[in-house]
Amino acid sequence: MSRVKIDAKQVLQDIRSGVSDAVLMEKYKLSAKGLQSLFQKLLESGVINQADLDSRRARQPKRPRGFAPEEDRRSVAEERPSLRAKTVDLAVFRCPACGKPQLTQFEICPQCGVIVSKYREKLGLPPEPDKEPGQKPTQMPSLLAQFQETRATYRSNVRRTGFYTNTGVEALSELKWKFKTGGWVAASPVPGHAGLYVGSLDGNFYLLDREFGTELWRFSTGSSIYSSATVTDTTVFFGSLDGILYGLDLRKGELRFKYQTGGPIYSSPAVSQGVVYIGSLDGHLHAVEANSHFVRWKFKTGGPVYSSPSVADGIVYFGSLDGCLYAVEANSGDGLWKIKTGGPVTTAPAVAEDRVFFGSGDRFLYAVHAKTGKDRWRYQTLNKVTSAPAVGEGVVLVGSADCHLHAVDINSGESIWRFATRRSVYSAPALARGMVYFGSGDRCLYGLEARSGRQAWKFMTGGPIYSSPVVADGVIYFGSDDGHVYALA
């Protein structure tokens, strides 16, 4: 292959989102010379200027010394240069009146407003090439609109803080509804405009009416679903133990996206800048573009990845069964730093106030600097840390197999209070307006005052609660191993 045709709109979107040279070369099958040809054509067409390219090169990530590159992130361009294009044809469309370049074919120029077909006819020019008679004009889309961005997700946001700004339930008044699935419900429900999204160990992913708890649709996968969903403008993403990352149409439940990993998925996806990040028991964190399905990178760890990734300021944080917490550059997949603990890191880290908070099977809750990984403080529980932390209002809250929920000062790492239940606490706490909500293996969901740890109420289900509660518009949603999804008000 010596020449390849490239969609200018798509490549410009990639460049402006910070995609590295190596990823551009792999995605568009370009050699190093081909990449330079692409940049030159963009400059000549006028859709980008030299200052943009200079600024981009200055932002290209540099690999830290001592951090070994991963084989599965090597540039394919280096491995098989003979298959890489050395020159490119760029699909750019110019207005015949003003000459301004556009990235999609158009009938009415977005710059000068001229009707192209009538202008060409007036000048006696032939019809536009590549435009069939009767074809409808294409409107100029916003580049930002091409990104799929998170609207609702596990732990409230992609930083996984578990902090909700809306009103919760200070005094429990009623069971609003409950919905029966065919298996345990360990995933956390995620509320969206169309309803409540949640998976079950019966292998089905459900959309439920938030007001009445009635089923709107279900989608069957090949195995049990522990993964909690992420909702974007158009798609809901989640993983399954069949090793597949699914993307479904929000309202119809139709399959729009499917990506196979090499192992079962317990991890919950994070979506940022149009890229879906998810862990797998194949030992990798995967980064896949939501629109194109292009695999941007895979990062290999020393063990299975149960942890759900967190994303903040261009960095992805996640843990592995190898005992490490990793910080990886979101665009390139380059490792920035890692911390070795004394036990597996299986839950989602939370990122807040320039720190990353996470727990380990070594019984410690850690606070480290988000940019460097430098230790800020450690807090020891009496057994392994079993839940993801919640962070907000000056406190870090985390569950442990010592049967307690622990509240720790965010700055000092000193204990503020701890609340005892009768079983291990795997359910990650939710923090909202001075209240904290969490479940326990003792079958109860608890509502506590965040400042004092005093119990305000509790609600008993028919099974242990591993699902993390969600706060939305004065309602608490969660699942239980009795097979039900609950709504409390």
Characterise this structure.
The protein has 489 residues and is mostly beta strands. The chain has two domains: 133 residues, no CATH class; 326 residues, YVTN repeat-like/Quinoprotein amine dehydrogenase (Methylamine Dehydrogenase, Chain H, 7 Propeller). 11% of the residues lie in helices and 36% in strands. It has six helices and 38 strands. It has a five-stranded antiparallel β-sheet, with no helix packed on it. Strands 6-32-33-34-35 form a five-stranded mixed β-sheet, with no helix packed on it. The protein is globular, with a radius of gyration of 25 Å. The chain starts with a strand and ends with a strand.
Summary tags:
489 residues; mainly beta; five-stranded mixed sheet; globular; five-stranded antiparallel sheet; Methylamine Dehydrogenase, Chain H; 36% strand; 11% helix; 2 domains
